[in-house]
Amino acid sequence: MEFRDYYKILGVERSATADQIKTAYRRLARKYHPDVSKEPDAEARFKEMQEAYEVLRDPEKRAAYDQLGSEWKSGQSFHPPPDWGSGFEFSGRPAGTYAEEDFSDFFSSLFGGGSPFAGATSRSGGRDHHARIEITLEEAYRGTSRMLELKRPEVKPDGSVELRSHTVRVTIPAGVTEGQLIRLAGQGEPAAGGGSAGDLYLEVHIQPHRSFALENRDVTLTFPVAPWEAALGASVTVPTLGGPVEMRIPPSAQAGQKLRLRGRGLPGQPPGDQFVQLKVLLPPADSPEAKAIYEQMRAKLNFDPRASEAR
């Protein structure tokens, strides 16, 4: 996916005011509108500038786009940072302001339906605001309380955009899941004329864990075992989000086999499970004694690991 320099597309400086951006867009729209333009690439240019204007005219999208920095050049390979959108408080767009499919993959990756800037809804009074919050898997399991510093884009009198920070306290319940919304009533946009303020919705994102893979409320742990533990069965101590537990490996267990620890995933109604995927590790044949044992196994065990594939 190629990076798009929206300022270059509209021919304005990064410091341009809202009025300067609007003027540049209108000038280019007259030049490249497909109904009147004689330029050979008019339609493509017109869609490109529409996309640029959709971002730069919106204080929230523009402020977020500016956080990518000015070192990017048009045409460079681009992928959104993993924490894209975190720390921004935004109101989203009114429904129906554009068709996402009309714009590029670059736009969709930053502001499309799967992004934090996808359309938030308005209601009577102040608009609802949205923000992303990143937590660890341990915090999702236990629950936590946190003070968040959020950046809210605001338009200054000269038409430029300023990021203002404010803090909110949030209690994250135990068992919260990926993508879940936490509502903070009355902490969105204040209403004009004394109406009720909007709400602030925090969208939870759980960071990847070094040991556990998460799917809904279930977690999976890859667990190393010795060949004799898999072959003969064994009682082993397995880490879980709630602390270590004893688990029985049945005899004749196979590499890749999954064992279930019920209720050991994220809390909930019902709670998730923990799956323990066995990974059989072989001791190295790095001594005469170890080599002798492997020679005995080869001689005495009637075992062909590829027998099933030959059928």
Please provide a written account of the structure.
This protein is an alpha+beta fold and 311 residues long. The chain has two domains: 6-206, Helix Hairpins (Orthogonal Bundle), CATH 1.10.287.110; 212-306, Urease metallochaperone UreE, N-terminal domain (HSP40/DNAj peptide-binding domain), CATH 2.60.260. It has eight helices and twelve strands. The chain has helices spanning 6-10, 18-32, 42-56, 59-66, 105-111, 137-142, 227-232, 288-300; strands at 89-90, 129-135, 144-155, 161-172, 181-184, 200-206, 212-215, 218-225, 234-238, 245-249, 258-261, 274-280. The strands form four sheets. A four-stranded mixed β-sheet has the order 1-2-6-5. It has a four-stranded mixed β-sheet with strand order 7-8-12-11. A two-stranded antiparallel sheet has the order 3-4. β9 and β10 (245-249) form a beta hairpin. α2 runs antiparallel to α3. The chain is elongated and about 85 Å long. The two termini are 45 Å apart. Residues 93-97 and 120-124 have low confidence and may be disordered.
Q: Which features would summarize this protein structure in a list?
A:
elongated, alpha+beta, 311 residues, 4-stranded mixed β-sheet, 2 domains, Helix Hairpins, 24% helix, 8 helices, HSP40/DNAj peptide-binding domain
What is this entry, summarized?
The chain is of the alpha+beta class. Helices cover 24% and strands 25% of the residues.
